[in-house]
Amino acid sequence: MSTILPLTGNESGAEVMRQIAPDVVAAYPITPQTELMHRFADYVADGKVPTELILVESEHSAMSACVGASAAGARVMTATSSQGMALMWEILYIAAALRLPIVMPLVNRSLSAPINIHCDHSDSMGARDTGWLQLYCENCQEIYDTGIQAMKIAENKDVLLPVMVCYDGFILSHTVERVELLEDHEVKGFIGEHIADHPLLDVDNPVTYGPLDLQDFYFEHKRQEAEAMRNAKPVVLQVAEEYEVLSGRKYGLFEEYFSKDAEYIMVCLGSAAGTAKAAVDELRAAGENVGLLKLRVFRPFPAEELVAALADAKRIAVMDRADGVNSIGGPVFSEIRAALYGRSSAKISNYIYGLGGRDIDIEMMKSVFQDMKDGKYAEEAFYLGVRE
Amino acid sequence: MAIKLKELSHKKDLLAPGHRCCAGCGSILSVKEVMMAVDGPVVVSFATGCLEVATTIFPYTAWRVPYIHCAFENSASVMSGVEAAYQSLKKQGKIDKEIKFIAFGGDGGTYDIGLQALSGAMERGHDMLYVCYDNEAYMNTGIQRSSSTPRAAATSTSPAGTVLPGKTQFRKDLTKIMAAHGIPYVAQATPDRWRDLISKVKKALEIKGPKFINILSSCFRGWRCAPEKSIEVTKLAVQTRFWPLYEVEYGKWKLNYKPKEYVPIEEWLKTQRRFQHVLKPENKPLLEEIQKNVDQRWEELLQLCGESSPEVTPGN
User: Fold this and answer.
1) Which structural domains are found in chain A, ordered by start?
2) Of A23, A70, B236, B303, which is least surrounded by CB within 10 A?
3) How far apart are alpha carbons B51 and B29 in whole angstroms?
4) What CATH number does the domain containing B167 carry?
5) Could you give the 3-state DSSP secondary structure of residue A342?
6) Which residues make beta-bridge pairs with B63?
């Protein structure tokens, strides 16, 4: 049995939290994450979850409290956006390196300056090397499904890394869509009980978290963290399979939308993939050989699988909703081009789009496919939809 | 709640010997005394600093109790997460033990970079004790000035130069700031008065809610005194009324010790070479300014504690 509800992205995120019912949630308000926490605070106030909700005085303390609570042995979540995550930065690395399976919906929003509350991926992309898994969502259903899966992935003993569930601010967070929910008991059964390995609250078996780790051990610990991220890839797939059995909805590392036989492939992540799909539909109907590869899992980066999926493309266009400001290109582009180096002869171009919530429409998506067809290429990124 | 030395001497150290603090470190004495006051299960957190570095070098740890260090500015917020986890699991019947929570930080991690996290944790009412081991500068990084560093003290970043005579500002009164939070218990202590310190920690741990204790702890490297003088210097800080021993329990201020005679601040400054320039004849006005500040703070404290002062005549 499933329930179908009209939910915004934030409400979907709140449903994830209600059904997971974490022992501890620490949060600080920031637009556009706020409504998720409002709704969750209602659940706490009404006694629908046993969660201790810590309403901290900053995001830095939100992540710090999550670290403490998770090390203590609790199942822990938080949520943030933009500047909030920028303030967490230092502790993001620590949460990952202490191997704490915290799950955090990240409602993607641009970074200041100039200050702007709307969507782009500068926040999560900047945190791509913090040791957190990053899963990107296209719509509200994916926010729900990914959130539930995230907890199971994070707590897998071969992984034990925190997970960011990234979804586009306002575009998804504030848009009502049809969302199919699992029953509470199904979610509970799916994620299971959280049993921490060396909790601080096991006072009879005291452990030291976060010691000084010098030249003789630090490197080995970082190496183990890297290995955990590698382990995460099969775990993401295994959890997706189990989730499909439960929900009937299929997830993978990425989604291939008419891209398997396509000559011209666009790579994109987040809500823009929906727009890209509409563009592909129209172009396919007109007989064009185009397709979309929607990246879902950016960390761990599925390089081998991407290479195989993109190997036969004639041209590839990578869409970035964050600028590297590095005179090379956006982060998704840099990594895909690096993965394909020496393994594909396709020219790969980069498009920076949608910064600060700038709209991207079907016509703009189609223009990218047209560029590929026309052989338009430059070493530097193209800026799509900006006044030059 | 009498503290018996004999009993303490039989107690197992929760902080094991073999840590790597300097001989004569006042901070480790403070922390050790705090831990002596603990009777049941406890979890501790630490801010980055000397004690974190010296007590936990992987694969060793001097801690016989659960310990967490996360970063510099968040000992209080990390511990608030640990405490919240405890409350949640207890509420759900997943844990039944009574556990105490103590967060530690030095003055840098408490007065400065961690003040916001501390203030937030105290305001939220977590059932935890925060202990600041205040050695009046960033000792771990090489003796830089903090907002706890006293006026005129020479540090690596406030050296006594030809133009500037050490730190140009007076220290922040953090204990008062914490008392202004209206939390159930706030106190000042020193490790030389171990009975007072341990009693305060015991009392704090019995009180439900957020508690704060500020412990002046010498650092012979930074204070530039002999390591064997580390106890003596904090004793003198109390005698000169630079560091009064007092507590604020549910809003009631109480002076724990009133020096019998007036000992000028000069006597304390003399014991530490970080102040040696202050004692030069040309810096007499500076010395007077420091004395005036000590006197003024002491008067304010006496008033808060409802104590009379021979120096102040009625109506003055």
Assistant:
1) 2-190+212-247 (3.40.50.970), 254-384 (3.40.50.920)
2) B303
3) 11
4) 3.40.50.970
5) coil
6) B15
Q: How far is CA B279 from CA B65, B76, B241, B268, in A?
A: 45, 39, 18, 11
- CB-based contact A201 B95, cutoff 8 Å: yes
CB atoms closer than 10 angstroms to residue B252: 10
Vertex A364, ends A363 and A368: CA angle to 5°? 115
pLDDT tens readout for residues B231-262: 999 999 999 999 999 999 999 999 999 999 99
Q: What is the dihedral of CA B58, B63, B68, B73, to 10 degrees?
A: -90
Question: CB distance from B16 to chain A under 8 Å?
Answer: no
Inter-chain CB proximity B74 and A91 less than 8 Å: yes
Q: Residue B269 is inside which H or E element, if any?
A: helix B265-269
State the pLDDT at residue B84.
98
Per residue, the 3-state secondary structure of A268-336, as one string, reads ECCCHHHHHHHHHHHHHHCCCCEEEEEECEEECCCHHHHHHHHCCCCEEEEEECCCCCCCCCCHHHHHH
In a domain, B288, yes or no: yes
Q: Are strands A177-182 and A24-27 parallel, antiparallel or unpaired?
A: unpaired
Q: How far is B85 from chain A (nearest CA, A)?
A: 5
CB B145 within 8 A of CB B274: no
Q: Give chain B's domain count.
A: 1
pLDDT tens digits along A85-125: 999 999 999 999 999 999 999 999 999 999 999 999 999 99
CB of B215 closer than 8 Å to CB of B175: no
Are A232 and A155 in contact by the 8 Å Cβ rule? The answer is no
Q: Which residues contact A235 (CB under 8 A, 6 or more apart)?
A: A153, A156, A158, A159
- Measured distance CA(A169)–CA(A107) in Å, rounded: 5
What DSSP character marks residue B311? T
Quick: pLDDT tens for A161-179. Answer: 999 999 999 999 999 999 9
Q: Tell me how far apart the alpha carbons of residues A308 and B148 are, in angstroms, rounded to a whole number.
A: 60
Contacts of A212 (CB under 8 A, 6+ apart): B52, B53, B56, B57, B58
> What is the residue range of B147's domain?
19-304
C-alpha distances (whole Å) from A196 to each of A47, A68, A76, A101, A154 are 25, 13, 11, 9, 12
φ, ψ at B252 (rounded to 5°):
-95, 120
Q: For residue A383, is pLDDT > 70?
A: yes
Which residue type is seen at B20?
Answer: R
A278 and chain B in contact, CB less than 8 A: no
Return residues 20-49 of A near B (CB < 8 Å): 23-24, 26
pLDDT digits (tens, 9 = 90+) for B177-208: 999 999 999 999 999 999 999 999 999 999 99
CA distance B187 to B265: 22
pLDDT digits (tens, 9 = 90+) for A333-349: 999 999 999 999 999 99
| Cα(A181)–Cα(A283) distance, integer angstroms | 33
Nearest by CB to residue A201, choosing from B64, B74, B99, is B99
